[in-house]
């Protein structure tokens, strides 16, 4: 693991892994969405609106996975001072927020025909909205820490990333702990309440979206590193001219 | 050696903070357990009936065979049950597509003096099962066998 903490070594392997992840992700996502939207059958009760599932579930998973990545990287940053951990956490925030927003939007579009409402304040919906606001707060803190020029405040977004992780189990168990309008999970370890016509395209689109997420995070990490490099070069130049 | 020590100190500090945080979270959830639910189930209503003018939500299963449409064609009667208690419901409006007997429902309204729940809005609750339309009319056993067969 420590090998990847070296930015030069990271850049060497990110250079070919980034386009590979993005291309594979786009192909798999495209194919699985075609499978889910055009080939999968209509659901017995929901009819065609079930097809929103193939976007809703992967984005929900990545919204939560994005924060788990932030929390894990924040821990590595706080404890081991990995030079890349903070960059990884910052890179995961924006795509995580986008996926969370897509999850909320698609859920709302599905809820109108299925539940007869766009939005209710039940445990699952509320905790997912809180996750979106946590992302916004994290991004604001991270950019404030970046702009203060000292680099000393980088610990504040890391601590916030760890504290915010408490919301992830709340999202997951909200439908089990409290009576809520959102259905309990259809998939758990080795068990599925979903027939294979829906399960397989769902698994495929989850893999596809996850690869895209990984590719975007790597691309953003490279961009942040390139920015830092350019800034360091400018600073050296300014000193040399003095 | 001293760098090693600082690293361990930070690790212990982070772990202790996380443990305290998780403890605080569990306490908050424990405190919320009665209040964060989106609706009451019939057993809650039976044990602790809400005041007649208080707007509440009642959630549960629409009992099979209980759904009846009044002669005016708009008013419906049905019974919401949770296996422990049953609450009769009256509703006068358009029902959502997913509303049917044996399926989950959340009714918003008030509990009348006679113990009938007067709903002014219905929300359908979908369960975690997803099956294609062709398997809709099968019994659960048949559907499970079909699912097994195509796996």
Number of strands of chain B: 6
Uncertain stretches of chain A: none
Tell me the major beta sheet of chain B.
5 strands, mixed, barrel
- Cα gyration radius of chain A (Å): 20 Å
- List the secondary-structure elements of chain A in sequence, H or E: HHHHHHEEH
Which outline of chain B best applies? elongated
> How many domain units of chain A?
1
Measured by residues with Cβ under 8 Å of the partner chain's Cβ, the largest interface is:
A-B, 43 and 47 residues
Number of strands of chain A: 2
Quickly give the CATH architecture of chain A: Up-down Bundle
Number of domains of chain B: 2
Rg of Cα set of chain B: 24 Å
Query: In CATH, what is the class of chain A?
Result: Mainly Alpha
- Low-confidence spans of chain B: pLDDT under 50, at least 5 residues? none
Summing up helix and strand content along with how strands pair, one would put the structural category of chain A as mainly alpha
Can you tell me the CATH topology of chain A?
Answer: Four Helix Bundle (Hemerythrin (Met), subunit A)
Task: Quote the average pLDDT of chain B.
Answer: 83
CATH architecture of the largest domain in chain B: Beta Barrel
Tell me about this structure.
By secondary structure, chain A is mostly helical. Chain A has a single domain (14-184, 210-241), classed as Four Helix Bundle (Hemerythrin (Met), subunit A) (Up-down Bundle). Chain A contains seven helices and two strands, in the order ααααααββα. In chain A, β1 and β2 (191-192) form a beta hairpin. Chain B has two domains: 1-36; 42-125, Beta Barrel (OB fold (Dihydrolipoamide Acetyltransferase, E2P)), CATH 2.40.50. Chain B has three helices and six strands, in the order ααββββββα. A five-stranded mixed beta barrel of chain B has the order 1-3-4-6-5. In chain B, a hairpin with a 5-residue loop joins β2 and β3 (75-81). Chain B is elongated and about 80 Å long. The mean pLDDT of chain B is 83.
């Amino acid at each position: 693991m420590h090998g990847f903490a070296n930015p030069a070594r990271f850049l060497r392997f990110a250079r070919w892994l980034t386009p590979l992840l993005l291309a594979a992700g786009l192909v798999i996502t495209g194919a699985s969405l075609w499978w889910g939207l055009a080939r999968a059958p209509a659901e017995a009760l929901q009819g065609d609106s079930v097809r929103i599932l193939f976007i809703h579930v992967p984005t929900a998973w990545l919204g939560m996975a994005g924060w788990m990545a932030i929390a894990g990287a924040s821990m590595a940053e706080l404890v081991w001072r990995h030079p890349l951990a903070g960059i990884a956490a910052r890179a995961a925030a924006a795509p995580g927020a986008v996926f969370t927003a897509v999850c909320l939007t698609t859920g709302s579009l599905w809820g109108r025909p299925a539940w007869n409402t766009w939005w209710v304040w039940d445990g699952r919906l509320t905790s997912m909205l809180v996750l979106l606001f946590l992302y916004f707060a994290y991004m604001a803190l991270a950019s404030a820490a970046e702009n203060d020029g000292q680099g000393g405040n980088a610990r504040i977004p890391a601590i916030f990333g760890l504290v915010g992780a408490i919301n992830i189990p709340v999202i997951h168990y909200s439908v089990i702990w409290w009576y809520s309008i959102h259905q309990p999970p259809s998939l758990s370890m080795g068990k599925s309440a979903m027939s294979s016509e829906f399960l397989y395209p769902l698994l495929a689109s989850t893999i596809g979206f996850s690869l895209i997420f990984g590719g975007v995070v790597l691309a953003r990490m490279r961009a942040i590193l390139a920015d830092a490099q350019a800034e360091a070069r400018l600073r050296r130049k300014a000193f040399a001219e003095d | 050696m001293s760098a090693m020590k600082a690293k361990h100190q930070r690790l212990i500090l982070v772990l202790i903070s996380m443990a305290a945080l998780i403890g605080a979270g569990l306490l908050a959830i424990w405190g919320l357990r009665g209040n964060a639910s989106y609706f009451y189930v019939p057993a809650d209503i039976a044990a602790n009936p809400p005041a007649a003018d208080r707007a509440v939500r009642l959630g549960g299963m629409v009992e099979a065979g209980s759904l009846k449409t009044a002669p005016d064609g708009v008013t419906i009667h049905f019974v919401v049950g949770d296996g422990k208690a049953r609450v009769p419901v009256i509703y006068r409006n358009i029902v959502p597509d997913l509303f049917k007997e044996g399926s989950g429902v959340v009714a918003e309204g008030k509990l009348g003096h006679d113990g009938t729940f007067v709903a002014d809005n219905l929300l359908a609750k979908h369960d975690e099962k997803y099956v294609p339309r062709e398997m809709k009319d099968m019994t659960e056993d048949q559907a499970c066998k079909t699912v097994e067969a195509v796996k």
